[in-house]
Amino acid sequence: GFVIHHVYGNQFQQQKWGAIPDFAVARLSRLIPLYWFFLLVFLTLSPMGTILFTHENAWLLLPYALAVTTWWPFSIDGILLGQWRYYGISWSIATEIFFYVCYGLFLYRICYVKHVATCAALLAAVLIGSFALMLVLFLTRDTWDLLVQSANPSLPPRTQDFNNSTYRWLLYLSPYGQIWAFIAGALTCQL
For the whole model, what pTM was predicted? Predict the structure, then answer.
């Protein structure tokens, strides 16, 4: 968040919506070609291609192609794609792309915060708010984890397989649990 805002904040402030295409091209051209190259490597040189093309979850090629594999708890045979040994490491790229989408659509507005006190208060609110949210999620995990588990029975409960649980996906692999750090970075840069 700090680096993205440092590099693109002024451009968004000057061009507003006109900066979005330049930002999208700059960020995606940095990530997507190499991401797609390694996706093709894994699809052709590892069992990943055979599993996806013959598996009932062949539709998962679409989230892979769009680099959105962490935006939902996608899984194969109870294993989160971010944990899957075939191209699981790509989870961070999907999460990073989510941050870019958020920044290009609305987080760039942080550049309009001009007063130090306002920016510091927003940063403190994000830090305290995200800590409070994570604490509440942790303390109430037995309640909401059961609800989430019933909505997504393809993944094991966190008590049986923590690494592949919806709980871990939500708080670690998904962009939703990490967006607060990105926002704090952008606010720190603005400050």
Answer: 0.89
